[in-house]
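Appendix C reproduces, verbatim, an entry submitted by the partner laboratory led by Prof. M.T., so that reviewers can inspect both the input and the predicted structure.
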Amino acid sequence: MYVKRAQVEQGVFNAVLIGEFELERAQDQFIELLDEAVARGTTKVLVDGRQMTGKPTDFERFLYGEFVASATLDVLFRHNLRLKFAYIIHEPLRDPERFGENVAVNRGMNVKTFEEKNEAVAWLNSDRP
């Protein structure tokens, strides 16, 4: 998996990811995106994974959710920057029970998964957590 495109559009850092989900690579990729979002001064991040494939196990979903929440909270403490993340992903990569999302949210990350880009962008631009 890799970043096909990353740019700021209307105040939202928009990253398009493609390829097969692999946990270690996904974690590395997240750190790169997080660093770039911070460097660009954006607080809203849209991860477009509609071109990604894979079916993570529940344990991989847990590990990824825990990892991204920890990394995001580290940014909050180091840079005093609150970030809001929207992921656009489809099943089976996106768990219909939202297990990975719930893991991250329960650890303090402001994140939500979506099926449609318009919904994700509307949520990012809203005041709703």
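Residues 1-6+28-89+101-110+125-129 form one domain. Additional entries are available on request from the coordinating office.
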